[in-house]
């Protein structure tokens, strides 16, 4: 059997829409019949766009950040080189939607970030708050410079693409981080069997980045790995939340302990991340997180890319606690807060949240089970481990926020650091605007004051089932 490829020039590509090189096999049979078999497509526009973004986008971003390229010129280059030969959204098959959302989201955020960054040059500087400096900046000017196939506005194309998956009208935690890069696999703490595989945009494991730097991929990779751990842990927590589950049974105790190990693994990942000696916090603050800029004006604003939007952590806080944080002047209450994030969730995620909000919490069910117990029953310790793991992971997360946001922000303000006058995204808050002191700290304290904390003071309580840090770290695999 011989194989060869048929090449199509750009004019032919425009007519074929989604084919630029077709791999075929030619089979010559004994009776002189010839069979031509299409066995695959190489270099389709989605792959071409991926390759362009992987090679050219970091270079263009660097030129724009150095002031060598205006945002309008940046948009023109992206339009002419990357967006000039895209298939109609309606012609994309299901397997192409994730990669296209990842790609288009990164191109949109890159262009928009440069437009807003360059607009800051004329904004008031020292002595003014972040909000005052941003007051004259209208999101959307960068996106307006992007044109698909020489005539279609970028927003129009992206919105149609997003509608195919009911995706929000901007990039998201899913498109930028969770689907980007190689697949993450999670192993069972006891058996070592693979229990979770993350969805991916690119089957070849391509990990796109704004900078092309390995440090950026490392930052994003840690998020991918910890979110995958959360997804795996929640599979077991969901078992506990079934209305007919027997919380006293060995099966449910095992599910609780397995979830606890996976959550503790997240804590280990965060600790190792913070202790890495070559971490570039300035790169995180001034480069990477600045691409999480607004796409829309305030009245139409969608939450930017943030781990605070992660459906897995939100779900766990809903089902473990009756109401993790009640409402206060700075926060609407945890359950009301969840619904404010629906605007950046996918439909199946919203359905999962609504289901979680409609069922009795684990706190309520455990309280009922313990009502007639005068002494701690043997089965309760698995759930003590589960709540303790959530507490420990939350402490690690707050320590991470303190190291990467609070401390650098305080130090920069103290030194009147000029870099803080050119930020598109406020470095003293989360990318969604969340106040790390008023909100993140409240959440951390609430998780520490969990409904089973009193059992930690019981004398002679069984030792925790927690695995060693090395074993917990090795539950995760992601190719580099």
Explain what the structure shows:
With 480 residues, the protein is mainly alpha-helical. The chain folds into 3 domains: 2-43; 44-168, no CATH class; 172-477, Methane Monooxygenase Hydroxylase, Chain G, domain 1, CATH 1.20.58. It is built from 18 helices and 8 strands. The protein has helices at 10-16, 45-55, 57-65, 71-81, 94-119, 130-134, 154-165, 173-178, 214-241, 250-275, 281-288, 311-320, 334-340, 347-358, 362-370, 380-414, 436-448, 469-473; strands at residues 2-7, 21-28, 34-41, 147-148, 152-153, 185-187, 194-197, 476-477. The protein has a 3-stranded antiparallel beta sheet, with no helix packed on it. A 3-stranded antiparallel beta sheet has the order 7-6-8, covered by helices on one side. A two-stranded antiparallel sheet has the order 4-5. α10 (250-275) packs parallel to α16 (380-414) and α16 runs antiparallel to α17 (436-448). The longest helix has 35 residues, at 380-414. It is globular, with a radius of gyration of 25 Å. The relative contact order is 0.10.
Query: If helices are DSSP runs of H or I spanning 4 or more residues, what is the number of helices?
Result: 18
Percent of residues in beta strands: 5-15%
CATH class category of the largest domain: Mainly Alpha
Overall number of structural domains: 3
User: Compute the gyration radius: what is it?
Assistant: 25 Å
Q: Largest sheet, described in full?
A: 3 strands, antiparallel
* Net shape: globular
* Strand arrangement across the biggest beta sheet: 1-2-3
Strand segment count: 8
